[in-house]
Known about the structure:
The chain has 2 domains: 85 residues, Beta Barrel (Elongation Factor Tu (Ef-tu), domain 3); 61 residues, Roll (SH3 type barrels), CATH 2.30.30. Helices cover 6% and strands 48% of the residues. The mean pLDDT is 92.
Amino acid sequence: MAGASGMIIMGRITGPFGLKGWVKVQPFTELFDTLLHHPDWWLGRDDRWDKRRLVDGAVHGRTLTVELEGCEDRDAATRLKGMDVAVPRAELPENERGEYYWCDLIGLEVVNRDGAALGRIARLLQTGVGEVLVVEGERERLIPFIEPVVLAVDLADRRLTVDWGEDF
């Protein structure tokens, strides 16, 4: 998800880990260790960001455990709970053809192959089997983000075409 500041939200701090100031982070990235490749993290809410240096970290199941500069104890780690973790868009690599950052998909109009408008992408969900588009229109639809369903993504025209019936 991209904010007006050009930051890309890539995770969220879910709470403290241990007693020495480490935190647990739920990554919003396809590969859980992606955030660990960024030496500087931006923590915040509502497009207000505070830069923190990543000291150490590791993948811990489906989350990350990390040590951030200036977070010395469990109380400090607890105060970070709920903070978004972001990096500047300019620091992210270019996508390969057919790959998209989730933030680029948010807000796209979704139409089916017959041209019927189904709504706009509000968010994406990561499930055990893949990503799901949450499309809000006259009602909410959950549409799998997989090749047989997604026919075309046109970022320039802000439109995504799907093989999905209006009654689904």
